[in-house]
């Protein structure tokens, strides 16, 4: 039997990273407006994600709506929102951004052209705030009925969180960056980034633990070789393990802005005479 060709995915990883660097250099050479440059880089990152993520994951940019005691709120704008494209959809769609209910969202990606140590710290702290958003509300059918549904609220694990930086601007090496990520996460007490790609340095992720008593809580894993491939794998792996609501539940979108008092009912004209 003829020997099969041996693929070199390591070479592929290197070529893709070089292409990212070339795209960043090209945008910097042509675009001077920071807003347009940022949107162009988000589009580049989104295109890369779209190439390898299964079609069940939708990609957009915008805001996530969630419930607070005093009513619905919106997060700050997120560069890339990863949502359920099979059973979820935006509540509002605009030309430049969308608004998604938390119930439809799997995770988010922060996209940066260049990232300093202090800006990376800010993203960790921002994640700690976003991880507090957990409450999701659904309607589910009442057992042994075909027309009655009941409201149910759950608090599954928080949105998956990722950072995609075309380059890191700092003198620290990978070990020092990993330690910094661990220190800031411990400072917040709750931050957890599922993947941080610093394209010119390495890939980093907070260590997953089953409980907060684990001695590896806040620890950070990192790799230098094949870092773009590790970022892709982390996305596919972590998103596949996201909590998914049962098939017969559906998001309670009405509870964001509607009231049962909005609904009026009229019976047939002869209903009263018939005792209905």
Give the fraction of residues assigned to helices.
25-40%
How many domains?
A: 1
> Helices and strands: which structural class?
alpha+beta
Largest sheet: 10 strands, mixed
Q: What's the SSE pattern?
A: HHEEEEEEHEEEHEEEHEH
Binned strand content: 25-35%
Mean pLDDT equals 89
Low-confidence stretches: none
Number of helix segments? Answer: 6
Shape estimate:
elongated
Measured on Cα atoms, how large is the radius of gyration?
23 Å
Terminus-to-terminus distance: 81 Å
Strand segment tally: 13
Topology:
Layout: H1 9-30, H2 34-52, E1 57-68, E2 71-74, E3 78-84, E4 92-93, E5 98-101, E6 105-115, H3 117-130, E7 136-141, E8 149-154, E9 160-168, H4 174-188, E10 195-198, E11 202-206, E12 220-223, H5 227-240, E13 250-251, H6 254-257
Parallel strand pairs: 1-5, 6-9, 9-10
Antiparallel strand pairs: 1-2, 1-3, 3-6, 4-5, 7-8, 7-13, 10-11, 11-12
């Amino acid at each position: 039997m003829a020997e099969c060709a041996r693929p070199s995915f390591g070479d592929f990883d290197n070529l893709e990273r070089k292409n990212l660097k070339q795209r960043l250099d090209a945008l910097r050479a042509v675009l001077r407006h920071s807003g347009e440059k940022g949107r162009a880089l988000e589009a580049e990152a989104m295109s890369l994600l779209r190439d390898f993520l299964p079609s069940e994951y939708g990609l957009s940019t915008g805001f996530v709506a969630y419930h607070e005691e005093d009513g619905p709120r919106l997060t700050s704008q997120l560069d890339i929102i990863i949502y359920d494209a099979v059973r979820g959809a935006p509540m509002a769609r605009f030309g430049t951004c969308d608004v998604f209910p938390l119930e439809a969202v799997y995770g988010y990606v922060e996209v940066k052209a260049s990232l300093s140590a202090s800006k990376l710290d800010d993203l960790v702290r921002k994640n700690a705030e976003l991880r507090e958003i957990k409450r999701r509300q659904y309607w589910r059918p009442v057992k042994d009925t075909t027309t009655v549904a009941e409201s149910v609220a759950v608090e599954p694990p928080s949105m998956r969180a990722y950072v995609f930086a075309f380059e890191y601007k700092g003198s620290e090496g990978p070990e020092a960056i990993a330690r910094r990520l661990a220190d800031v996460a411990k400072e917040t007490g709750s931050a957890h980034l599922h993947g941080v790609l610093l394209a010119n340095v390495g890939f980093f992720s907070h260590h997953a633990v089953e409980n907060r008593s684990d001695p590896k809580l806040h620890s950070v894993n990192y790799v230098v070789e094949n870092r773009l491939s590790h970022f892709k794998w982390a996305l596919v792996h972590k998103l596949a393990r996201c909590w998914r609501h049962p098939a017969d539940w559906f998001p309670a979108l009405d509870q964001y802005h509607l009231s049962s008092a909005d609904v009026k009912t009229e019976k047939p004209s002869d209903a009263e005479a018939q005792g209905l």
